[in-house]
Design a protein that fits this description.
single chain, 363 residues, alpha/beta, seven-stranded mixed sheet, three-stranded parallel sheet, 13 helices, 42% helix, globular
Length: 363
């Protein structure tokens, strides 16, 4: 059954179907697959950002096991920033005849052909974290434009009266990632007309070393003392940016934003090197993707699983779950990543950061 027919069946069944995975009971709707022997193909884009291997993959695996009475199986592949490799991985999973796919695309456009092949094979696809093109059946992500708004507002707050006294460098994500465009749009909405953007970069593959090279070039062009702040779209790039600033001899660093609440970024925030990050609660996002995948594998309505919908460049009204995000600064570390169990105080406050942690009341 292709995506169009599946969506028609979903629409017809929605009124009658009650979604069991979200605590609403069960149903014996015709065509529903009751077996727990479900194979889920999980394709993640890279392994440089800590989140994918440390948080997303284990949460998805745990939730799949829970929803299938430990009978479900997850086939996992990481593309390591290689769009061609990810296409091969997806096509291999089609050959393996998986029941459903969860795909976080390296390149949203490049993956469309492989997703079309999955559709032709009757395998539904959940786009995870990034909105892939092609006939996808569901989408789970954070409110990505809001991420940019939060980053831009935080940078303005950090700059205060210095907002008009120098130049801001904007270090956006990869052009191949549709989320990067949304982060950029939200940030520009906040920053345009309030700061002078001296230079702006789209960072290939989101790689920290590419961000560092871009920042080295910005420092050489603008002068280190002219830079009053840096918009960094994520934490990995923030690390490269801060390395470049320190190598240029800046001891009093300008505020630098981030995203993902990586442990190294939280420690940089504690130390005062990075101003903020965006804390994204990975467990709810990963769990929602797993639940959506199991519903689709069972030919069940997404119903309550998707609280909105979104249009892609190739599809209309894709059922969507959006997870809210939180600005994390030194003031709310304890109330966010520590309280949620993402990191312990001991993990954050290793000896190098013990004094700074004590000042913040973490120790």
């Amino acid at each position: 059954m292709n995506a169009l027919l599946r969506r028609a069946a979903v629409a017809a069944a929605t009124a009658a179907m009650v979604v069991p995975l979200f605590g609403c009971g069960t149903t014996e709707e015709p065509g529903v697959r009751l077996s727990d022997d479900i194979v889920v193909g999980l394709l993640l884009p890279e392994n440089q950002a800590a989140r994918y291997e440390q948080f997303d993959k284990p949460v998805i695996e745990e939730r799949i096991a829970r929803l299938t009475n430990s009978k479900g199986k997850v086939l996992y592949a990481n593309a390591k920033h290689d769009a061609d490799l990810q296409t091969q991985q997806l096509e291999s999973m089609i050959e393996e005849q998986v029941d459903v796919l969860i795909v976080d695309a390296v390149d949203a456009k490049a993956i469309a052909g492989a997703i079309e092949k999955a559709d032709e094979a009757g395998i539904p696809v959940v786009a995870f974290d990034r909105l892939a093109e092609g006939p996808i059946d569901g989408y789970v992500s954070f409110d990505n434009e809001q991420v940019g708004h939060i980053q831009g507002k935080a940078l303005l707050k950090a700059l205060g009266d210095d907002a008009g006294s120098g130049k801001v460098v904007m270090m956006n994500g990869a052009l191949t990632d549709p989320n990067a465009a949304m982060f950029k749009k939200g940030a520009h909405t906040e920053l345009d007309g309030k700061v002078e953007v001296g230079l702006e970069y789209d960072t290939k593959d989101w790689k920290p070393e590419n961000a560092k090279a871009n920042m080295d070039a910005a420092i050489a062009t603008l002068g280190k003392d002219a830079i009053v702040g840096v918009y960094s779209a994520n934490d990995g790039m923030a690390g490269g940016i801060i390395s470049a600033l320190k190598a240029a001899g800046l001891s009093d660093l300008p505020p630098v934003t981030g995203q993902d609440a990586e442990l190294a970024a939280v420690q940089r925030i504690v130390a005062g090197d990075q101003y903020m990050t965006v804390y994204k609660q990975y467990a709810p996002e990963a769990a929602a993707a797993a639940e959506m995948a199991i519903l689709l594998a069972r030919n069940m309505s997404l119903g309550a699983a998707a609280h909105t919908d979104i249009d892609t460049p190739t599809e209309k009204a894709v059922p969507t779950v959006r997870i809210p995000v939180i600005a994390l600064t030194k003031e709310n570390i304890k109330e966010t990543v520590v309280a949620d169990g993402l990191y312990t105080v001991e993990q954050i406050c290793v000896p190098e950061f013990a004094d700074a942690c004590e000042e913040l009341g973490l120790l």
